[in-house]
Amino acid sequence: MKTAIALGLCASLSGVSLYFAADDKKQPPAVPTAPAKKTVTKQDRNPSKPVLDDLPTPAQAQKPKSTAGDIEAALEQSSFADFSQSPLSNVLQFLGTQHNINIFVDETGLANAMVDRDQAITFQMQGVRFALILDLMLEPLNLDYAIRENVLFVSSKDRIADLQETSVVRIGDILPPGDAGPVAAEGIVAMIRHNIDRDQWIPIEEAAPKNQGGANGGTNSIQFVPDARSLVVTANSRTHRKITKLLADLRSAKVAQGLPVEGTSKIAAR
């Protein structure tokens, strides 16, 4: 039987390929190819369903180098949570990864609140601020959180309430000029004492500095410093955030009235 060796060129869209045939009456054998591996993208997954199995373990992951400012910004970001009987530690790890911040779980605080790291969490919510998700998820467990240095610190409510920091909050941009400024500042101080955690301020006493205190014997303090046109506030992280929001609303009200508002900043001393 006559055999021939044929050299054929087969053009394809991807280029030119070569094959050898033992018999010119037969088609060249098909070259088996491995099935293409499907790449699973984020779009292929339900964006509202966290894939906890994909999260790196603490030993594998390099924790993000978040700052206090990053955490404050993250708390205002839109977030999502979709957990069903997931351990608390995994849930917090996922949320920290989602917002690229460090979250530290205080074991002592959890023990005081009678909560375990493996406490099962079932919680669904999306399209709301990260801070609201934390509030609604941790509240039933008697847990709370605060910003400590460069981490989001999760502990019992009582322990968080005891973590105070002192900050200088400039309010000169929302005060009228001249002698009317200190008078307006007194009103702002009274507004803060009355509307924000009113039972947590130091009582007003004749011997105490002016502007300090509320009525029910707390440990927070607030004082207006005329020369700096600023407030000096000692309180926990949650109270500070409430004050920041109240002052931001006052600035927005001034802008809505067409009144000038200068830039402002907050200097914290921990």
Can you describe this structure?
By secondary structure, the chain is α+β, with helices and mostly antiparallel strands. The chain is 28% helix and 27% strand. It contains 7 helices and 11 strands. The chain has helices spanning 68-75, 88-99, 107-112, 130-138, 157-161, 180-195, 237-256, and strands at 6-12, 15-21, 78-87, 103-105, 120-129, 143-148, 151-156, 164-170, 221-225, 230-236, 266-269. The strands form 4 sheets. Strands 9-10-8-11 form a 4-stranded antiparallel beta sheet. A hairpin with a 2-residue loop joins β1 and β2. The protein starts with 5 loop residues before the first strand and ends with a strand.
Topology:
Blueprint: E1 6-12, E2 15-21, H1 68-75, E3 78-87, H2 88-99, E4 103-105, H3 107-112, E5 120-129, H4 130-138, E6 143-148, E7 151-156, H5 157-161, E8 164-170, H6 180-195, E9 221-225, E10 230-236, H7 237-256, E11 266-269
Parallel strand pairs: 4-7
Antiparallel strand pairs: 1-2, 3-5, 6-7, 8-10, 8-11, 9-10
